[in-house]
Specification:
Strands 1-2-3 form a 3-stranded mixed sheet. Helix 4 crosses helix 5 (104-111). The protein has helices at 23-33, 42-46, 64-77, 81-95, 104-111, 143-149, and strands at residues 36-40, 127-132, 135-139. It has 159 residues and is an alpha+beta fold. Strand 2 (127-132) and strand 3 (135-139) form a beta hairpin. It has a domain at 31-47 and 59-149. It is extended and about 75 Å long. The chain is built from 6 helices and 3 strands.
Length: 159
């Protein structure tokens, strides 16, 4: 039998065993990995379409904000361009916003000239994508609370 011929020289790597001690925290952490909060402010919806160009050349349909939002989602989920187009279309449909979605060829062409926001340090938690009139921002868990309310903790209730 040929598979037993080199038994003495074959290296065996034992299978790693991970023991989970806190199942509730482990389960919550796995659920949080897939959590994404997407917010569009009314000003961002108004800025979705590009302004009219006064220079020679074709008119752009989508602003840099729209392209940056789509490419940020692509970077977060590591998607192909056609999949990104579908994800943006489904998010816009779920939010009930009437906006046109950039197609994959537009995303590819405009991606060369845009800079994306830095992704927050991976903590295994939820990722918040904030789209407002100033642009697109990716936040880790709790960061959007600080930006929106000025504190990491909720205020105590008055009794």
């Amino acid at each position: 039998m040929p598979f037993k011929a080199n038994v003495s020289r074959r290296h065996h790597i034992p299978k790693q065993r991970h023991r989970i001690r806190n199942w509730a925290a482990y389960d919550a952490g796995l659920r949080a990995r897939g959590s994404l909060t997407v917010s569009f402010t009314p000003e961002a919806v108004e800025r979705w379409r590009a302004e009219t160009r006064t220079t020679p050349g074709g008119q752009r349909l989508y602003s840099d904000l729209a392209i940056t939002a789509a490419l940020s989602l692509r970077a977060v989920f590591r998607l192909a361009l056609r999949q990104t187009e579908g994800l943006v279309a489904s998010i816009i449909q779920l939010l009930g916003i009437d906006l046109a979605v950039p197609d994959h060829s537009t995303l590819s062409r405009r991606a060369r000239t845009l800079r994306l926001p830095a992704r927050p340090a991976s903590s295994g938690g939820a990722v918040n994508l904030l789209v407002d009139s100033t642009g697109v921002k990716l936040c880790g868990p709790g960061e959007w609370l600080v930006e929106k309310h000025g504190t990491r903790r909720s205020k105590p209730s008055m009794q």
